[in-house]
Amino acid sequence: MTPEEAGLDTKEWEELKSALKREPNDLELRMVGVMWSEHCSYKSTRSLLASLPKDGPYVIAGEGENAGVVRLNHKLGLAFKVESHNHPSAISPYEGAATGVGGIIRDILAMGARPVASMDGLFFGSSDNSRNRRISSGVVRGIGGYGNAVGVPTVGGLTIYDQCYDENPLVNAFCAGILELDKACSSKTAKPGMQVLILGARTGRDGIAGAAFASTGLSGDDGANKPQIQIGDPFYEKLLIEACIELLKEGKIQAMQDMGAAGILSSTSEVAHKSGNGIDIHCEKIPLRETMEPWEIFLSESQERMLLVCLPEDIPYVEAVAKKWNLECALVGEMTDTGFYRVFNRGELLAELPVGILGGDSPVKNWPSSPPKRSASIKTSRSLNAEDVVTELLRVMQHPSMGDHSWIYKQYDSMVQLRTLLGPGNPVAALWIEGAGTVVFSMEANPWICAQDPFNGTALVTALSIRHLSVAGADPMGITNCLNFPSPEIPEQYWELEESVKGLATAARELKCPVVSGNVSLYNESPTSRIMPSPLIVSAGFIPEGINPLPPKPSSNDEGLEVFLV
Amino acid sequence: MKVAVITFPGSNCDQDVKLAISKSINAKVNMIWHTDSTLDKYDLVVLPGGFSYGDYLRPGAMSARSPVMRAVREHAHRGCLVLGICNGFQILTEAGLLKGTLLTNRSQRFICSPCWLKVETNQTPFTCLFNPAEPVQFPIAHGDGMFYLPKEELDDLESSGRVVFRYVPPPGVEPEGWENPNGSLNNIAGIINEKGNVLGMMPHPERATLKRLGDTYGTMLWRSIEHWLRGGI
Amino acid sequence: MLYTLSVLVRPKDGVLDTQGRAVMSTLREMGNHSVVDVSVGKFIRLTLESKDEESAVEAAKAMCRDLLCNEMIETFTIKVGDVSK
Amino acid sequence: MLYTLSVLVRPKDGVLDTQGRAVMSTLREMGNHSVVDVSVGKFIRLTLESKDEESAVEAAKAMCRDLLCNEMIETFTIKVGDVSK
Ligand SMILES: Nc1ncnc2c1ncn2[C@@H]1O[C@H](COP(=O)(O)OP(=O)(O)O)[C@@H](O)[C@H]1O
């Protein structure tokens, strides 16, 4: 394994060696390579995202957590986040979309919350060809297949069609969960001496180095990317959710982390880093489906696994709950005070890295930025006569993105858990939360405007999303977002990303709706096409119990009422 | 009144049923784990919806072989009430407690939507308070809901009045050209056993119970059961 | 001894095989007009410990009746070995 | 000429067989402790018009690639005739 094969450039390689004061061994190099990938380290966007407003009256947890948490009242909180699963869905639509749903559900669970609602933002190609049909039908089946079975209702979403997504479809999965604030979980609360367990499925060779894969453009040759796909099992995930919630209720989990990108490696190193500790992991104790090399074990993205940090005396209890739910449960390591991430195999030390190197101190990338030269054909203003307006309006109304999306959301169970006040087909989604009130979500995106003007476009989309909340009578609590962009390595594209983040920050600040979580997906491009800047915004609002929520839906009785334009 | 709601691995409407029943009638609802082997003293046993065992192999196939099903069978043989909703209906057919089977929807797609039903008979413990002349609305949410039974047995089911719920067009829609949501034979949405104490249905009454969520036709089902158990019909 | 058996489960007759029909119509839409019939069933490969082949087959039969096959709508055949090999 | 072909689709080795895992544990819970492995795949029987066997198999292969099999996670084998007969 060369540094280049591990995904490090010369500068990163030098930085790594000087941080270690030696050369890393093969396993260490692979681990660093993955943790320093764009997907895990946010190296191209960390500095940009720092400008987002993060605090507000509702915010409890945000930065650096698996999901943002806002307060509904003194007892209950809402955790929510949106995440992309673009590359996997392009390669294998059903499995990619399904595991996207599964992954975001575990992110919410990791905060100690019961997942109560999902939404999906879908960006499909508009060309009428069999590939696009295969992708859209596979993605929709995947989202339904997972969400329906796991029993989390899909209460809304958004579907956009444009040619720029022909080669680069986007699948953004949102999930929200309810937690009791005194049982909230965090990776920050792990302490030396606590035991590290893996609960859930066995580890196999699926999705190895998927994180690194998500950090590069699609090669155009699907075949080469094949082994990296993960398979989801919503049945197993349902058992995992119930088992974790049972353990949380009893206070048997001290810290928790889902295993998403870069599996065991990223979850364990994050827990160690965020809690300011060290961690020892014993390779031979990890339950496997097949024989695997240590590096494969650490990078595998096998689904339906959670990392738990527990007190030694609680282990028997945890094991009993795992047994009840028929889940694998293995004690694989312990938190230490060494500040080192250490991997052992039958006592032999295989890797020893300062926790910070894996968990957050990766070098940042500052790509050159330059505004694109506007082509003369884009007019900023144009006078229209009445006829033009009608023609243009009809043209817009006929766009497939404006069409009826019920073929999609009819395949989603939007009602399970009995909280859905407004499901798909409404301008916002609304959930009844017993003991708190009504939570309202609005998901928005408008890549066409963002392509014209990423700053104002993104600000506008953010404002639109928040406006939807206001119309529903809800007080905005916070925003989560998914920044879907092409490669940041082209100065014009990086500029768009920069502007877009500024637009988001400005709108969020002005409208007093902080950004509590989010996700960045770069390199959404193929050799022949790239996506428009496609930031997706989800805002969450709240209507406390007792206040009359949501204006009534328009009905035929409304005839004769007056319409105001405000 | 005492109600047992069984949780199979992968059940996901178990808590919903509990909530709906507790909000509608005066009943004590207990959750029963699929490995439990006794079900004494319950007036009603509910097999809830969901994807038990992930719907793997055939929906309901594996749950039908779980330990608690022996107790459910004994409970049914004693003449006590059993209600299977959605996946619960699939489990009851797989366990042989109800006739027929539920095949993949004709569209090959999962469908979640409101759905209108005709209550074919109010001569059952589950429907005694319904007015058969008035269609009711319960949502459906399933991928495998196409009721199938070989011809002779189907005729027998019909002639003995064991079809309890049938899909009908929404009010205002002509039956001409209308198709039921999943391709079910004879538009069947719910059936009862010969003894009249085991009901299976694909639509979800618990999703039509809470006022804030919309229609509350489902309440009538819970109240019928309560009424019947008190000795009325 | 370890035996590998192939259980082939098929829908009983064409009427019930909605999946087969759906697959056939998709195949034809994709241009495969030569296809005249499609049936979609299951291929379950069992590996089990048994004293001899005969009792392995008997055990598999029992599992088919008890779980693997719904005889109202499906039929099954058991072959010794992995038929896909 | 009409040809009948059997397409056997199996989860790739190493790929998680979610169904097989669930079926095996139920079979064992039902008392079939001799079972050591279960894999659940598809048995698709195709009937198609073709000039000869070779081109029938070729056509079936193309259909597998295009629709019947997801090669990311599954493998397929084509046998001439109905393997369940
Ligand atoms: N992929 C999807 N998943 C779930 N619901 C969707 C999806 N796409 C659209 N919807 C629902 O369809 C309705 C209309 O969608 P859209 O046209 O994007 O919204 P709007 O015009 O209100 O901005 C919304 O209620 C939305 O929740």
Automatic annotation (TrEMBL), chain B:
- Tell me a Gene Ontology molecular-function term this record carries: ATP binding
Task: Read off the Gene3D superfamilies from this record.
Answer: 3.40.50.880
Q: Which UniProt keywords apply?
A: ATP-binding, Cytoplasm, Glutamine amidotransferase, Hydrolase, Ligase, Nucleotide-binding, Purine biosynthesis
**GO BP term, example:** 'de novo' IMP biosynthetic process
| EC number assigned by the record | 6.3.5.3, 3.5.1.2
So which domain of life are we looking at? Bacteria
What GO cellular component is one of the record's annotations?
A: cytoplasm
Transmembrane regions = none
The reply to whether Hydrolase figures as a keyword in the UniProt entry is yes
What is annotated as the active site? C86, H204, E206
Q: Which InterPro entries match?
A: Class_I_gatase-like, PRibForGlyAmidine_synth_PurQ
UniProt keyword annotation of Hydrolase present? yes
**What compartments host this protein?**
Cytoplasm
The reaction(s) annotated as catalysed by this protein in its Swiss-Prot or TrEMBL entry are:
L-glutamine + H2O = L-glutamate + NH4(+); N(2)-formyl-N(1)-(5-phospho-beta-D-ribosyl)glycinamide + L-glutamine + ATP + H2O = 2-formamido-N(1)-(5-O-phospho-beta-D-ribosyl)acetamidine + L-glutamate + ADP + phosphate + H(+)
Q: In which pathway does it act?
A: Purine metabolism; IMP biosynthesis via de novo pathway; 5-amino-1-(5-phospho-D-ribosyl)imidazole from N(2)-formyl-N(1)-(5-phospho-D-ribosyl)glycinamide: step 1/2
**Predominant subcellular localization, coarse grouping:** cytoplasm
Q: Which Pfam families match?
A: GATase_5
Oligomeric form and interacting partners: Part of the FGAM synthase complex composed of 1 PurL, 1 PurQ and 2 PurS subunits.
Please name the PANTHER family in this protein's record. Answer: PHOSPHORIBOSYLFORMYLGLYCINAMIDINE SYNTHASE SUBUNIT PURQ
Q: What does this protein's UniProt record list under function?
A: Part of the phosphoribosylformylglycinamidine synthase complex involved in the purines biosynthetic pathway. Catalyzes the ATP-dependent conversion of formylglycinamide ribonucleotide (FGAR) and glutamine to yield formylglycinamidine ribonucleotide (FGAM) and glutamate. The FGAM synthase complex is composed of three subunits. PurQ produces an ammonia molecule by converting glutamine to glutamate. PurL transfers the ammonia molecule to FGAR to form FGAM in an ATP-dependent manner.
What HAMAP family does the record tag this protein with?
A: PurQ (MF_00421)
State what protein this is by name: Phosphoribosylformylglycinamidine synthase subunit PurQ
Source species, please? Answer: Thermanaerovibrio velox DSM 12556
Q: Which gene encodes it?
A: purQ
Automatic annotation (TrEMBL), chains C, D:
Q: Where is this chain's protein located in or outside the cell?
A: Cytoplasm
Q: Show the InterPro entries listed in the entry.
A: PurS, PurS-like_sf
Give this protein's Gene Ontology molecular function annotations: ATP binding; phosphoribosylformylglycinamidine synthase activity
What EC number(s) are associated with this protein in UniProt?
6.3.5.3
Q: In its UniProt record, which GO terms are filed under biological process?
A: 'de novo' IMP biosynthetic process
Which family, according to UniProt? Answer: Belongs to the PurS family.
NCBIfam families for the chain: phosphoribosylformylglycinamidine synthase subunit PurS
Q: What is this protein's function? A: Part of the phosphoribosylformylglycinamidine synthase complex involved in the purines biosynthetic pathway. Catalyzes the ATP-dependent conversion of formylglycinamide ribonucleotide (FGAR) and glutamine to yield formylglycinamidine ribonucleotide (FGAM) and glutamate. The FGAM synthase complex is composed of three subunits. PurQ produces an ammonia molecule by converting glutamine to glutamate. PurL transfers the ammonia molecule to FGAR to form FGAM in an ATP-dependent manner.
The protein, known as: Phosphoribosylformylglycinamidine synthase subunit PurS
- Organism, per UniProt? Thermanaerovibrio velox DSM 12556
Gene designation: purS
